[in-house]
Every structure is written in structure tokens, then in C-alpha cells.
Amino acid sequence: MSPLALGLSIGLVTILVLATGTPVAFALGLVAIGFLVAVEGPIALANLADTLFAGLNDFTLVSIPMFVLMGAAVAASRAGADLYEALARWLWRVPGNLVVANIGACALFSALTGSSPATCAAIGKMGIPEMRRRGFPADLATGAIAAGGTLGILIPPSITMILYGIASETSIGRLFLAGVVPGLMLTGLFALWAVFVSLWRGERRPVGPGPSLAERLAILPRVLPFLLVIVGVVWALYGGIATPSEAAGVGAVLCLLLVVLVYRVWRPRELWPILEATIRESTMILMIIATSILFGYMLSSLYVTQSIAQSIAALEVNRWVLLFWINLLLLVAGCFLPPAAIILMTTPIVLPILVAAGFDPVWFGVILTLNMELGLITPPVGLNLFVINGIAPDVPLGTVLKGALPFMLLMVVAIVILCLFPGLATWLPDQLMGPRVG
Amino acid sequence: METYVRIVSALSRAAAFVAAGLLLASIAVICQMLVVRHGLGRSAIWQNEFVTFALVAATFLAAPYVLSVRGHVVVEVVPLWLQGGAKRVLGLVAAGLGFFFCLLVFATSLEWWWEAWSEGHRTSTMWRARLWIPYLSLPVGSLLLTLQYLAELWQIATGRRPPFGTPHEVGA
Fold first, then answer.
1. Which of A21, A250, B25, B83 could cross-link to B79 by cystine, CB 3.0-4.6 Å?
2. Beta bridge partner(s), residue B130
3. CB-CB contact of A147 with A374 (8 Å)
């Protein structure tokens, strides 16, 4: 069987096994070892344990449980409520202020927690009822939260970027910085849309005086420390003071300390859920990483990766057509699979082709992340939609989707803007870390 | 069989506690390493390796518990679409495939661990860590996963647990 035909059968079998509802981690592992044994014989089993262990035996991966812990600590506190309250007070005069405050709170909270569904739950629980009480339509209120929750994987620290950094052998500090401007740009686009819809639909403006300056200042001490943690982590990284894993470890300790000091969460009964959530989330991601690496090893040792890359390169299509198809592939994959699996399986195949076509790998990391964001709010797997459905059960899923649709289109617009102006992603890392070598 | 399910759940939970302990230890070591490197200006010898091994071990040890609370991500397109008996059959197929993979990992990792233990394999770094210690997490974790899958299969087959669903939905 030719490597390409083999690749096709691997693809089909993988879809079939995943469709049974076997956990993604075990499904990928089973398909990988199945094909290795089928082609190379039972001798392939001898490497199974070592490949699984070696896949995770990487100090950079340590940053994942650390960032997850950082997020779990923040998610367990009232930090989400305070972020939302702070922005609502400061943005009192802006049209659609509540929606804008929600989007801003989602961006900050998801950057801190790195979890899109956790953000939807934390911000949405307060934001959605409040927006609807103030007369904002249900589709806008729910759609803004569903989309806002995805902003975090672009704004550092981001687990998606760490995985891409590992898979593409690109500097994680550089990738983090590359996500800053596009992340802010997308948050801005979302906020502009909220202002526009509010003006267009004739929002009911609140009467009476807004919060006083004293009230606005009073909430800052509870919010600013968390923002300082984000800035601190990024600063430690690009300043070369700490590796991603060390920065993540310190970020986790700082967030735990802040939760203990600011929110008085210190009893073992309150701390165990934080640890439990960390163990659950990071084990889920790392198991997928371990078997995705096994899957990648299988593809490359059966010469499938190289054959697919060569056949695509042989097509000699226009580089933008190539990028379009790769985006579409990522988007479709993102609708079904978690980002960790997609990044580790597709990067070794598509990155060499893109680099050969003259695209910047750091810039592509941002494009890839935007695609993964879209997948988080696209059915059938779009977890955010189900979280929103749980918070506001009276809003049909179709209405949430209708509200999320303009935001999804804005993400596509962001991808197009980044294609036209790649400097938006590469300018900040180049300024702070010097131009990329190689 | 119900006693078996209880014992396996307790073992998975115990392994998750060990994993949580390893996570806390890793954080402490990372902070200590930064103090040693930046505060005291000395080089770190064992810390990188310790933290990496601890978190790899934590992952394999916590995986059975994560399975018991249905925390491993599943592509739910077909399961959401099916109903009743067909859904249960699919649940059994999915759990069967997972069981088979974990059994395979257990069988192969046992020999791999034994080799590291009996031949005294060590890392090639200055710390020269004994590899059988971190390696042990893979046979232990995969054995517990296999046992946990057996419990899942029995519970799904007898209708004691829905074939699919998030931890929240199944009340874990």
C-alpha cells in the first residue's frame, strides 16, 4: 500500500474509532499502535510504553499543569465577578456598556484561566442575567459570552500556543507576544460590534448617575493583582528570566497566594476542588498529548507525514490558496477534536509546507489559534454553547448560535486582517526579542 | 461485583491523591529552583528532571480517576444522536476499545519497567536518577485504567451508569 493510501485508511479508521465515543486520548493511541503493528508486526509493541513516557518527558510540558492550576485557582474565587463588576463600573458611559464589560471580562478571565468553558461559566453566570434584565436581547447576551470565552487562548499565557511551540519548535515567549496584538484586536472588534448592535437596536439606557469615582477606584485593588500576574508571567518569559515552565510555576503560586489573601480561600475543603480541577483538566490534556505524539510517530515512521507534505507541495498551488485549504482543514478538525490533538497531529505535516511557501511559523501559530477559537464555538462539539445552555436554559441553542454567528464572522475577519498585515502578529515579538532567526 | 467497583474507585481516588501530592511537590521544587538559580546564583542539578518526572507520573496516576469521573474528552456526535439500546451498545464498544488499549499499555509497560528495574537503568544526567521509579507510574496507571474500564463495562452493561455523559450529568 502506498503511503498516501495508508494515510487515507488511517484517517478513515481514526474517524470511525473517534465516532464510537472512545475518549480521544485512547482512540488515538489505539489507532496508532494498531497501524504500527499491522505494518511493522508485533515488534512495534516493544516501543509503546517508551514512546508514551518519552512524549511527556519534556520540561516545557510542565507549564501545562502549572497554567491549569493558575486558572483553577482564579476560577474557584470571586475574581470573575470582580473583573466583570470593575469593567461595568468603568465603562458606564459606553453604549452597550454591559456587553462590552462582559467581553472585556471574558478576555481577561480567559487569559488568566486558559479555559474557555470555565470563562463562559464564571462570567456568563452574572453577565447573562444582568444583560437580559437591562433589556439586551438574549442572542447578543449569550453570543457575546460564548465568543468572549474563546479570547483567552490567543492572549498569553496560552496552552494552545505552548503546544504549537513544542510541535513547531518555535519560541514560546515569542508566540505569547505574537498573540497579544491580535488578541487585543479581536477583543476590540467584538466590543465594536457590541456597541454597534446596541446603538442600532436602540438599547434602554440606564437612568440616574453612574458609579462615582470612589466606587470605581474601590474595586481596583481586587482586580489589578491578577492583571499583574499576567504581565509578570509574560515579562519573565521574554526577559529571559524564566523558562515557560518556571514562569508558569511562579504564576500558579502567585495566583494561589492571591486567592488565599484576597478572597480568603484557604481551608482544605476549599483548596481541594482547585487541586482536583487541575488534576482532571491537565491529565485530560496531557493524556491526549502523549497519544497524539504516538500518533505522530506512527504517521512519520510509516512515511505518511512526508508523503502528504510532498504531494501537497507537488500541487504547486498559489500560497494563499494553500493557506485557505489548510485553514479550512483546521476549522473542520476544530469542530470535532480538542486543540491539543489537532496541533500535535497537523503541525508536523502542514508547517514545513507553509514555511517552504514563505509563511512565518510564529505568525501561523496565531492563525492556527484563531482557527481553534472558532472550533470552540462551532457545533457539534463547541463546548461553550453547551455551557451557555446550562446557564440560560430558557434560551434555545439556536438563539445562542445566532448571537455567536457575528462574532464567529469577526474571527474570520481577524484571520483575513492577519493575512493582509502579518506584522500585527510579528511586530511585538520582533520589537521586544529582536527579529526571528531562521 | 459492586464491591469490586467500590474498591477500584477507591484505588483510582488514592492514585489521584498521590498525583495531587506530586503536583504540589513540583510547584515547591520549581520555586526552590528559581531561588537557587537566581537568588543564590548556583546551577540547578536535579530540579528540572524531578519536576518533569513528577508530572509525567502524576498524569498516568490520575488518568484512572479522570476516567471514573468521565473527564477524558469524547467526540460526542454519534452518542448524542443515538438513543436507548443502540446508545448502550455504542457505549460498550467505546469502553471495550479503551479497555483494550489500556490493557495493551499495561502489558507492554510491565516488561519495559522490569527491564529498567532489573538492569538498573539511570538517566544520563548529573543526577543519575533511577528510571524505574518514574517508569513505575505507567504500569500502575495503566493497570488501574484497565480495572476502571472493567468496572465501567459492567456498570454500562447492567444499566447502573449511563453509557455517555459528563461528570456533572452522571452525578460523579
1. A21
2. B122
3. no
